Amino acid sequence: MARAQQPPGKAEINLSGQWRFQTDSLDEGVTQKWYTRELKETVTLPGSMTTNKKGNDITVNTPWTGGIVDSTWFRDPAYSKYRVPGQVKVPFWLQPGKYYKGAAWYQQTIDIPASWKGRHLELFLERCHWETSVWVDDQYAGMQNSLATAHTYDLSALLTPGKHKLSIRVDNRVKDIDPGENSHSISDHTQTNWNGIIGKMVIRDKPAVYISDVQLFPDLKANNVTALITVNNISGKPAAAKVTLQAQPGKPATEKLQPVTAQEQVDKTTVLKVVYPMGQHPALWDEFHPNVYSMKVALSSDQPGTDESRVLFGMREFSANGTQFTINGRPTFLRGTLECAVFPKTGYPPVDTAAWMRIFRICRSYGLNHLRFHSWCPPDAAFEAADRIGFYLHIECSSWANQSTTIGDGKPLDEYIYEESRKIVKAYGNHPSFCILLYGNEPAGKHHTQYLTKFVEYWKQRDTRRLYSTGAGWPLISESDFNSTPDPRIQRWGEGLKSIINGQPPRTDYDWSAMIKKWQHPTVSHEIGQWCVYPDFNEIKQYDGVLKAKNFEIFRDQLEKNGMGKLAHDFLYASGRLQVLCYKADIEAALRTPGFGGFQLLGLYDFPGQGTALVGVLNPFWKDKGYVTGKEYRTFCNAVVPLVRLPKMVYLNNESLSVPVEIAQFGPAVLTNATPSWTISNSAGKVLFKGVLDKKDIPFGNGIQLGNINVALDAVTTPSRLTLAVNVAGYTNSWDVFVYPATLPAADPQVLVTQQLDQKALDALEAGGKVLLTLKQGTLKADKGGDIPIGFSSIFWNTAWTHQQPPVSLGILCDPAHPAFRQFPTQGFSNWQWWDAMSHSGAIKLDAVQKGLQPIVRVIDDWVTARSLGLVFECRVGKGKLIVSGIDLLSNREKRPEARQLCYSLQQYMSSKAFNPAAVVSAAQIRALYE
Questions:
Q1: CA distance 442 to 91
Q2: Any idea where the Glycoside hydrolase family 2 immunoglobulin-like beta-sandwich domain is (predicted)?
Q3: CA–CA separation, 713 vs 740, rounded Å?
């Protein structure tokens, strides 16, 4: 095997390449001194055991890391074929080809040049998973266990010139320190509990007097940077050290910055404090102007050799003013999503800047400016990419202390969080993108509030470069710089059909003002959205790395088994459009709230774990799924967003549309002389109404009133879907509203409308008549679909981890060109006019009526069960023709214009020649639905 040697002209040895390797499943390596023997297998590093195809085959006994709520897979006969050895498929998360949990040994032979004698030699391993122990020949060098930062070992005393055997034991088990089995730093739910070493792997050579740390603290008021430079001396005698600082802008600047020099005597370790002037007009850093500087720190001393460090930083101040965040004194609004360590190609995060630049560019294309790293911390490349593109990062200390552990109760995790946070701030604290630090996600523990209060106080006193709070989601304490809470969102955990979006008629005039008025600092809504979409089975082929979408294969099998395989793409598109509508409602509610701090989506891309949570408009590769673009998404999620406060979304044409117009304005500058304009168009794109509002300068903030739109709708004489669009300074947002005639013509009396097949209805059918059976809500039998709780929204998170929280469906699918909808205009998916139907109906199990029955309106079921469900279907019964509606179209219809209009549209269809059902069903089968 080739030995790792010093590259010409470089003061480091690159350790990338082939390593000797052996697993240690019985924990024998230390006692048997494997560090003294030659290991026989080989792997390539950087990499993991999985990328090297090492480990065990997946079985029903694979010791996964992560909570499994949907445990029926282990015993349900329906999953038996997925438990066959060699053909195992799990639905919980993406599935690796091999799996290993335990100790594994990696070994390399290195050559130390004679010129390195007496110098500081450091082993640098950029990212390890998880605990590493190091031996040089037969000498133990120590253990490290950071999940967030590089493992570095001082090997100065062990690496004498010549050949050495370097042995690294990596252990990926949860042992004394349990950050939480679902933490994305370690869990198989997302990045996988991999075993290996990735990123930069080097032995660094430094002089006896060297720089060990540089921390930069910008001061915008004084236009300077305070540098704290830690200098170490291992020569054994005092040394006179001189440091020279030189800041360089990332792009040409009008002011030339001068070097600053400081000198000090160094015995062992000294921290030099140097104030560096940044000129009269330093370039500030923010999302619109990501101006990055590089600080070169050069060290010389009266000992041989020099040292140099280059540090990226930005002149920025991210803080809070009242209930809103500010960047360099200007109000800003966090428009964020989560990054949950989802990397299907490798099973671990990328360590190159280009990969992270791609992610941030995609996020920006969807109108975002913020990324929260849920219970993990990314590599340095992510910070550098965020610096250069202008993204605000929320970092967590590798932990979700819930379920398998708690925090604040005296466990080893308590001290580990402090250690991890100090390492994170030391490694990444200079990056201007590093704006927020929390312990982690949704804590549990009897004393977690007291613990996290002290944690926040500790960091507020120690480092003012960013903001601090407790845990993502809770607890809320006055000591935090801001709140993170799940309360301000349109569907909270466990609300089911009682949430705003499912329990109240659609409107856009609500906000969270009453909720946040009791707090004095900014509030960020925690994990809003969580709206699901149907799986994209075409995505399966994209999984050409270490993780495979075996979960999708299971769901595809279920859909095909139930005879609906050809509907997969239609289900994806229709549920996707509903998903977008739900996210728009969630995001706009946050933007409408005056003084609000921001939101964090869950999420912009799918979460493939926890039973599969398909909550993204993007897939785990950050690719769109074909039903919404970034351009459309930015209309309601952007730095500047026009907004309206519609009291309802459905009108009669004897009403007026009267709506206040406002704006959320967090752009780079005040919008001067802006003239808001608006249009109302029909579905063909014809403008029916238009107008302008008063010209004005629009300052920073939200809840900024622009005026009112008032339109009498009596000119809308046919049932219509109208689109209200508002444009302000080139930013356009739009909303669909529905207008129906206040007075309807008399329906065909030959169509009998009834809520049960009584004798009158049976007689009509026997006589060759037409019957519209509209089932009264609550009468559909449980085994026919009455036990399926449906609502307007799509599934929240998923049905497994919410224990079947309703709704368990993903909206409707229909053919908008079907003649049944001539008087009830619709798209092929749920829009606001379907809220009433979904809130007054039962989903009929079509196969319980007749196998293969095709409905006029289909309900898209949860992908796990994939049942064929319908709201409206047609058939022949005896000599007559029948439409069955699972929607109650009669009860309280005077207050339900949508129900009245849909009922009329169905009646008109039934009166036409187009009404010619093919399916033949007996009266007994129909009556069995509700009797």
A1: 24
A2: 209-316
A3: 10
Distance of CA 533 to the CA centre of its chain: 14
DSSP SS3 for 541: helix
pLDDT above 70: residue 382: yes
Name the band, by pLDDT with cuts 50, 70 and 90, for residue 8.
Answer: very low
Q: How far apart are the first and last CA of the chain?
A: 78
Is the pLDDT reported for residue 7 higher than 70? Answer: no
> Do residues 308 and 210 make contact, with C-beta atoms less than 8 angstroms apart?
no
Per the listing, tokens 């370690």 go with: 186
Confidence of residue 3 (pLDDT cuts 50, 70, 90): low
What mean pLDDT is predicted for residues 38-63? 97
Q: Which residues contact 40 (CB under 8 A, 6 or more apart)?
A: 20, 22
Average pLDDT over residues 529-553: 98
What's the CATH code, domain 320-535+579-610? 3.20.20.80
Cα 536 to chain center, whole Å? 18
**Inter-CA distances, 829 with 108, 382, 489, 585, Å:** 59, 38, 23, 16
Angle between helices 412-428 and 448-462 (to 10 degrees): 30
- The answer to whether 123 and 155 are in contact (CB under 8 A) is yes
Residues 624 and 366 sit within 8 Å (Cβ to Cβ): no
β-bridge partners, 226: 217, 275
Q: Check pLDDT > 70 for residue 5.
A: no
Using only the alpha carbons of the chain, give its radius of gyration: 32
DSSP state letter for 821: G
Domain boundaries, the chain: 12-204, 209-313, 320-535+579-610, 640-740, 751-927
**Whether CATH 1.10.260.40 fits 209-313:** no
For residues 67 and 64, give the distance between their C-alpha atoms in angstroms, rounded to a whole number: 8
| Residue 884 to residue 875: CA distance in whole angstroms | 8
Phi, psi at residue 151, to the nearest 5°? -90, 120
Q: Which fold has domain 12-204?
A: Jelly Rolls (2.60.120)
DSSP assignment string, 28-82? -TTTTTGGGS---EEEEESEETTTTT-SB---TT---SS--S-GGGGT-GGGGGG
Alpha-carbon distance 835 to 826, whole Å? 12
Instruction: Report the pLDDT value the prediction gives residue 71, as an integer from 0 to 100.
Output: 81
∠ Cα 262 265 269 (to 5°): 100
Mean pLDDT of the chain: 96
Residue 254 reports pLDDT greater than 90:
no
Do 209-313 and 320-535+579-610 agree at the fold level?
Answer: no
Q: Is the pLDDT score of 4 beyond 70?
A: no
Q: Residue 396 in contact with residue 436, Cβ under 8 Å?
A: no
Q: Which of 730, 516, 710 is nearest to 641 (CA)?
A: 730
Query: Mean of the pLDDT values across residues 166-191?
Result: 97
pLDDT tens digits for 446-496? Answer: 999 999 999 999 999 999 999 999 999 999 999 999 999 999 999 999 999
pLDDT one-digit tens code per residue, 827-844 = 999 999 999 999 999 999
Query: What pLDDT is attached to residue 1?
Result: 41
The arrangement of secondary structure in 640-740, i.e. its CATH architecture, is Sandwich (2.60)
- Residues 49, 25 contacting (CB under 8 angstroms): no
3-state secondary structure string, 831-899? CHHHHHHHHCECCEEHHHHCCCCCCCEEEEECCCCCCCEEEEEEEEECCEEEEEECECCCCCHHHCHHH
The answer to whether the peptide bond before residue 807 is cis (omega within 30 degrees of 0) is: yes
DSSP labels for 291-305? --EEEEEEEEESSS-
Amino acid at 844: I
At 278 the three-state DSSP class reads coil
